[in-house]
Amino acid sequence: MKLSVIGLAVLLPGTLLAQKKTDFSIKGKVGNINAPAMAYLSYRQGSQSISDSTKITNGKFAFKGSIEEPIQATLLFNYTGGGTNGKNVQRKTIYLEPGKMKIDGKDSLSTANVSGKINDDYQKLRIALKPTTDQMTAFMADYNAMPPEKQKDTAVRSVLDKKYNAIMEEQKTAYLSFIKSHNDNVVSLDALKRFGGSTPEYDVVAPLFKSFSENLKNSAAGKEYATMLTGLQNTAVGAMAPEFTLNDTLGNPVRLSSYRGKYVLVDFWASWCGPCRAENPNVVKSYAKFHDKGFDILGVSLDDETSKKNWLNAIRHDKLTWQQVSDLKGWDNEVAKLYVIKAIPQNVLLDPSGKIIAKNLRAEELEKKLSQLFPL
Fold first, then answer.
1. Euclidean distance between the first and final Cα of the chain, in Å?
2. Which site from 87, 173, 286, 291 is most exposed, i.e. has the minimal number of CB atoms within 10 Å?
């Protein structure tokens, strides 16, 4: 068994001593698989990424380790033993629990049973989600089978968007039902993250989190989510936009407060983000139409040092004539963290006093909102 730990932060010795860990062990049996097949286990624990591997002999494999609390992990089989990528790979999401765990499968990892209360609850969630999972699989198969020109057709996309959104709403209903009936389980916390999506709304997710047990809320994962909620609350519609300063393309510092007196759109994007680049023409159109009336934009890029040249080229190519800033840290962008940006494109619209009056206005929605603020 080969174990590797990649530390993403340096911990003080005192911190290490203060962390209480419990042992786990996994014994598995899936069919009669043999060499060169390998099993791989990967998970994150705090600031560390942990990966482990072992040979599969007569379908049997085993792992052991220690965890601070139950945590989601990925178990992977490669039937040709060639690492974690390739055509002969099967993946299964499991939860590592303290104590002894068993994994039993007749002939496939994907259908194998995993022992443990948390894994039992996770299986209940998977069963509840299966109808929408099957619908989404069929939807994507139909979409991918379409000719490219049909995929781009406006009328076709309108129909597809409605179907996709209907599936997602049904899926959210399943998540919500599970969350409400399981308030003391890390699976529920992970389900809440999926329920909230990439642009969670504080007023929607906060009450659900508050309904969780104190044990769950006080777990490391619970505390991390609580911190995220604080960020959401601080950047919700009606709140004063948190101040920040970032350098522009020439290295000059730009303060958000310098835009006071104007309606300003703080636009989060990146040169490598396809949906962002597709949305840029709509933003350019709104800027041209309303800039002279008192509307401005501050672009915040999630590019990094390696893509700085692409960022500058994208600004020119997409004709983004407003101010652009970035700390060139990619997803570690300090302002993105401050505003709880988990996906892009996203934006925040501020009034002249600096108060947030709208979020994530796209295409016609942005122009419609600005038309209300600046009647013709």
1. 70
2. 87
What is the pLDDT, as a whole number, of residue 115?
Answer: 94
Phi, psi of 22 (to 5 degrees): -125, 150
CA dist list (Å): 8 to 40, 65, 70: 21, 19, 20
H helices, E strands: number in the chain: 12, 16
pLDDT tens for 327-365 read 999 999 999 999 999 999 999 999 999 999 999 998 889
Q: Is 19 left (phi over 0), alpha (psi -120 to 50) or beta?
A: beta
* Global pTM value: 0.84
Q: At what angle do helices 202-210 and 154-181 cross, to 10 degrees?
A: 20
Q: What is the pLDDT of residues 186-213, one digit of tens each?
A: 999 999 999 999 899 999 999 999 999 9
Of residues 63, 72, 67, 8, the one with CA closest to residue 40: 63
| Phi, then psi, of 46 in degrees rounded to 5 | 65, -120
